[in-house]
Design a protein that fits this description.
Layout lengths: L1 H4 L9 E2 L9 H6 L3 E2 L15 H6 L9 H8 L5 H7 L36 E8 L3 H9 L5 E8 L5 H21 L4 E5 L5 H12 L5 E5 L3 E3 L7 H6 L4 E7 L3 E5 H6 L13 H12 L2 E4 L6 E3 L21 H20 L32 H11 L8 E5 H7 L14 E5 L9 H7 L15
Parallel strand pairs: 3-4, 3-6, 4-5, 8-10
Antiparallel strand pairs: 1-2, 6-9, 7-11, 8-9, 12-13
Helix pairs in contact: 6-7, 12-13, 13-15
Bound molecules: 2-acetamido-2-deoxy-beta-D-glucopyranose (2 copies).
């Protein structure tokens, strides 16, 4: 499994490279002290290093000749990619390098003398879901100040014409990032619809299935300078940990072990909220080890100016009007699904409660990772986000009777909730049957899932 795939074996005491007195450019003096997790290396001006062997082979005391290299890069006679090659990074990139000499984003200032980037064993995958905030995505990508092998971006689209425009704007912004940083380091998955939080996270995992672990972050968050510098060492020195809540589910690491023993996220929970409660419960039931952040880790979240999270710009796309009500509608359905799945007397997040099932739907033939995509539940939540459906035209349906009809052999009926499934309707219409619900909204999105959900 994962251990075999990890290259190198980083220890706990990162060697700090000595700064050469020949580095005279003030911005380089204060901006670029290179740390290396495995080897002590001198920071010497002149000559061309071959660090690629060092990175994978573990030679000690390999000198790093980067002073002139950095200068040549800064004055434009060396490309960013050539700089990476000089740093021994053939199969990885440090995106923050491309922002070393630019203005920092608010709250991402480096402290006095703090390096602009850290030379480390590469993080295998950093992934994010995004919808319609290109500026935040750019901030996030350029905040990655350690090497990374693959950046996965799942582009979700919300319904309507404005949503299509949002998608084009987002793709243009991603194209710019790829041009700047190098196309080969990106995997961009264009959903053409909204796979939601769980579906997007699963897409990240599926797109890079062999990775030993995945660092997943909200697109409205970003890494504080230096926050990532110990992360690879932290993860590789704790091989028994299956899941890391760096900042709850805003920034987390899911490992191969978690995927094997707990599974991927349940995509019946859509588009957001409660996927984390369900996963937390499964983590607890599985007994795998969950760790929190290393002390160095921190991130910012949202827009420091408005103080709010703004990965969804609600002044732009279709489907955003009445955001709060629409979100309440689908969130409520998510909670009911979650209660039903575990026979929970209250939709308490991640809590083990009296009488709850020990396997999904109380079905002994289901493992913890088992979920069955239910198009009809999705269609109800889809109706919450269909722009032509009115936010005040709610139809409530007895959840117990719905779930009594639809099940997989062996699934137990749950007895414990008192709420209704909700759908929104256009104007004053009253639809009664499931097939009508499906065609009333989100027909494109009824199958908007990751490859894990496809049957
Ligand atoms: C840029 O820096 C390099 C390395 O110090 C130097 O050799 C080169 O002459 C410089 N080029 C320009 C255009 O200043
Ligand atoms: C669901 O939980 C309740 C207790 O809250 C319990 O009485 C009931 O038997 C459980 N249902 C099943 C099918 O186990």
């Amino acid at each position: 499994m994962s251990a075999a795939r990890r290259s190198g074996s980083a220890g706990h005491n990162p060697g700090v490279l000595k700064q050469s007195s020949l580095l005279f450019l003030p911005v380089i003096m204060t901006g670029v002290v290179v740390y290396f997790s495995i080897w002590d290396a001198a920071f010497i001006v002149g000559g061309a290093p071959d660090l690629s062997e060092t990175v994978s082979g573990g030679k000690t005391s390999q000198p790093l000749y980067v002073g002139a290299t950095l200068e040549a890069w800064r004055n434009g006679s060396l490309s960013g990619r050539q700089l990476h090659a000089e740093l021994g990074l053939k199969d990885a990139v440090i995106p923050a390098i491309y922002n070393c000499f630019s203005e920092r984003y608010p709250l991402l200032d480096r402290s006095e003398g703090q390096p602009c980037f850290y030379l480390r064993t590469p993080i295998p995958v950093i992934g994010t879901n995004t919808v319609n905030n290109p500026a935040m995505l750019r901030r996030l990508v350029l905040s990655i100040d350690v090497p990374v092998q693959v950046i996965v971006i799942v582009v979700n689209t919300i319904p309507g014409e404005a949503g299509k425009q949002d998608e084009l704007d987002m793709l243009a912004a991603i194209d710019e990032l790829q041009e700047l940083i190098g196309r080969s380091f990106f995997k961009v998955v264009r959903s053409g619809c909204n796979r939601g939080c769980a579906g997007g996270w699963n897409t990240i995992v599926h797109s890079t299935l062999d990775s030993p672990w995945w660092l997943i972050i909200n697109d409205d968050a970003a890494f504080v300078p230096g926050a990532l510098r110990t992360l690879y060492d932290y993860v590789s020195s704790n091989p028994n940990v299956a899941f890391y809540k760096l900042t709850a589910y805003q920034v987390f690491i899911i490992t191969q072990r978690a995927v094997a023993e707990v599974g991927v996220f349940d995509e019946n929970i859509w588009p957001a909220y409660v996927e984390d409660c369900d996963y937390d419960l499964r983590l607890k039931l599985s007994g795998v080890m969950v760790a929190s952040r290393p002390p160095e880790f921190s991130n910012i979240h949202g827009d420091p100016e408005s103080g709010s999270s703004s990965s969804l710009i609600d002044t732009r796309g279709g489907g955003h009007s009445g955001y709060g009500q629409r979100s309440k509608c689908s969130h409520s359905n998510n909670r009911i699904y979650y209660q039903k799945k575990w026979n929970l007397s209250v939709p308490g997040c991640g809590r083990q409660l009296e009488g709850m099932f020990q396997t999904p739907h109380g079905n002994p033939s289901r493992n913890l990772d088992s979920w069955t995509f239910d198009e009809e539940v999705r269609a109800r939540s889809e109706s919450c986000w269909e722009p032509s459906n009115r936010v005040d035209n709610w139809l409530r349906e007895d959840a117990a009777s719905y779930y009594a009809q639809v099940s997989v052999p062996g699934d137990q009926p749950a007895s414990n909730w008192g709420q209704n499934l909700i759908r929104l309707q256009p104007e004053e219409s009253e639809l009664d049957t499931i097939s009508e619900v499906q065609s009333s909204g989100g027909k494109d999105d009824a199958h908007c899932v990751s490859p894990f959900a496809e049957i």
